[in-house]
Structure prediction request, 293 residues.
Amino acid sequence: MRIVNTFAVGGAADILARTVADHLSTVFGQQFFVETRAGAAGSIGVQTVIASRPDGYNLVITNLSLLALLPVSNPKLGFDPKRDLTNIAYIAGTPIVLSVNPARGFKTLGDFLAYGKKSPKPLTFSSSGVGSNGHLLAESFAQKAGIQVEHVPYKGASQGLTDLVGGHIDFSSQTVASTAGQLNGGGLAGLAVSTSERLPDYPAIPTFKELGYADLVSTTWFSLSGPAGLPKDIVDKVNREVVRAMQKSEVQERLRRDGMIALPLSAAEFSAFIEEETARYKPEIERAGLVGK
Prediction:
């Protein structure tokens, strides 16, 4: 039984996929293994599961981008989440952090913006992919702040963060979960985070909201999906166990450390949540000029 991780190894999706797989293997007595199929902002991995039988043996890690953002921004996505997937469970969400290489000397977001406004060329940044939440947030921030930016897409978080540490790009707009190791190790410095309040484990990083960007409050959530037509009894059984997995004390500790929050939603509640998120982000995607990108 496989869970397809649609993003690169080491990122938030990979961490959550392995947490869920370990729990499901234990409670169901069958081995769930994680298979990484990264690329095309996660759509490659999704399409491998869409083509499988709806018997519960092939599941996939989906997220905000795959279920709500990309269907709006990319008319040629190659699949329709409503038609081709079954929503199973919300796993957890993590905010976006704007991070920089500390060697550049930026102490505050103001320092960074001052540099950006004087730069003769656009500032380059990484996200987890074209049309991702990090991509959208960085473009929205740049428009509001009056700086020019250029997106450098990667297959996953780790490659973009490695290039930022190496000095090859100017900043990153990726999840706290993916960036946590570099933030805690001093390889990167966080200048702003997309939460409404500062994160307890990262109290020195101010929020975009407190810095004057009140509408840049955003969570990149991750979820579990299956092919269309997955029987309700399988959906309910797996949903119940994903919720249980996320409530374990040791998992809660890991989530908190990575700035993640789990929501115990039923499958029906999760489907309604996706509709709300799509309606929320559609105007932002259009304003940022990302339709067709």
The chain has two domains: 2-93+220-287, 95-193. The two ends are 35 Å apart (CA to CA). The longest strand covers residues 85-100.
